[in-house]
Amino acid sequence: MEENVLKERVAQLEDHILKKCLWQFHSRAWDRERQNENILGKTMQILCGEPVAKETAEDRCYYADAVCLADAYKERFDWINTLNVAEIKEVMAALKERIDYVTITGSLNEELTVKQY
């Protein structure tokens, strides 16, 4: 996928998360890492039509957020419905990288690194 198109699409998906998803506000970096991995990973699986783990309570919690996110993406962004599996995976990998940066590595929130949490 062309780099400019990828960046534009990731920006749209990121904007939705930042405006509509409360899960991005966990107070610990390790919570944010786990949530980003699981919610965005499961969202990608749903969008790709792949099986999604739902065995544990934690899996089901992440799955619920992923279903809402996948549904919103399909409804709000017509272009996502035209992508093949490889393209969806490319966009979602770039989105995860961006969300990790925004919510963890690039965050100025010093609480994220407090060892007592």
Automatic annotation (TrEMBL):
It comes from the Bacteria. GO terms for molecular function: ATP binding; iron ion binding; iron-sulfur cluster binding; nitrogenase activity. It holds the Pfam family AnfG_VnfG. InterPro entries: Nase_Fe-Fe_dsu (IPR014278), V/Nase_d_su (IPR004349). It catalyses: N2 + 8 reduced [2Fe-2S]-[ferredoxin] + 16 ATP + 16 H2O = H2 + 8 oxidized [2Fe-2S]-[ferredoxin] + 2 NH4(+) + 16 ADP + 16 phosphate + 6 H(+). Keywords: ATP-binding, Iron, Iron-sulfur, Metal-binding, Nitrogen fixation, Nucleotide-binding, Oxidoreductase. The key enzymatic reactions in nitrogen fixation are catalyzed by the nitrogenase complex, which has 2 components: the iron protein (component 2) and a component 1 which is either a molybdenum-iron protein, a vanadium-iron, or an iron-iron protein. This is Nitrogenase iron-iron protein delta chain. The gene is anfG.
